[in-house]
Amino acid sequence: MGDAGEVSTETLTSGPELRAFLHGLPGVDQVGADERAARLATRSIKTSAKAQAIDLAISMVDLTTLEGADTPGKVRALCAKGAHPDPSDPGVPKVAAICVYPDMVATAAEALAGTGIGIASVATAFPSGRAPMEAKLADTAMAVADGATEIDMVIDRGAFLAGDYLKVHEEIVAVKQACGDAHLKVIFETGELVTYDNVRRASWLAMRAGADFIKTSTGKVAPAATLPVTLVMLEAVRDYREQTGRMVGVKPAGGIRTTKDAVKYLVLVNETAGPDWLTPQWFRLGASSLLNDLLMQRRKLSTGVYSGPDYFTLD
């Protein structure tokens, strides 16, 4: 990490120190990142490996519904699908987590009891993040009390872009504390951060504040997840582990809709951070429609017959 990598992040306690550290990180070669991501995206895998990749991708899905029209019935149906993605084939793995708004956590917790599937909730005034800190902490505490095992928080992008890194850091620390035993995923909304340098800074900021995962996007702003942005984040978690010994997960979310997309991300993980991250514990795919395509491609590989989208339930 160069000179910045020699600084102990634990000693950074003031805004100026934090700013000096983040702006001391090596700049991202945007052209190089784009070219590497594009090159890795062209990698092909053998049919036998594809079958394994599909099952791995299914097990990494955070199956998501984040709409104002969400109902308890819709959440229960999504939970049932997450636990048994293809009821006709018990060999299909369950998903990693179901992701819902805080007021739907209790419904999801009841539906998922005994399944081992995580219950993720987008607390902290998702997707804008524009709410008083007290409201964000109350949102988080309620979700955890209702059964959330994972909290997906959004950072204050306005504060970050204004250079108020200490405010963002302190909010992440406070939400992490409110999470208790629940894991914390920190969402950057990379489409609003604009530059890869900002993505790298946000990654290090979130990790040193205690994030268990760093996440690209809410899925509500374009562009959402992209391969180059995810590459920058994967490099950050790799370098962070080298410096601190602590692993942090990565979750691209938004716009990942096809099996081909998912496989590209798995290749990116393996070639950038390494195989240690190729597990649902350290890599997730935030998606609402991806699961159906994975199931269709899985059915085609196992039977030779392509089942149309009507064969599987709609998300």
| CATH class identity | Alpha Beta
Shape: globular
Fourth-tier CATH superfamily name = Aldolase class I
| N to C succession of SSEs | HHHEHEHEHEHHEHHEHEHEH
Alpha-carbon distance between the two ends: 42 Å
What proportion of the residues form beta strands (DSSP E)?
5-15%
Pathway: Carbohydrate degradation; 2-deoxy-D-ribose 1-phosphate degradation; D-glyceraldehyde 3-phosphate and acetaldehyde from 2-deoxy-alpha-D-ribose 1-phosphate: step 2/2
Family: Belongs to the DeoC/FbaB aldolase family. DeoC type 2 subfamily.
GO molecular function: deoxyribose-phosphate aldolase activity
GO biological process, one term: deoxyribonucleotide catabolic process
List the defining traits of the structure above.
TIM Barrel; 8-stranded parallel β-sheet; Deoxyribose-phosphate aldolase; alpha/beta
Describe this structure in words.
The protein has one domain: Alpha-Beta Barrel (TIM Barrel), CATH 3.20.20. The chain is built from 13 helices and 8 strands. The protein has helices at 15-23, 30-41, 47-60, 72-83, 105-112, 133-145, 157-161, 165-179, 190-193, 196-208, 227-244, 259-272, 290-303, and strands at 61-64, 97-100, 118-121, 150-154, 183-187, 213-215, 249-251, 285-287. Strands 7-6-5-4-3-2-1-8 form an 8-stranded parallel sheet.
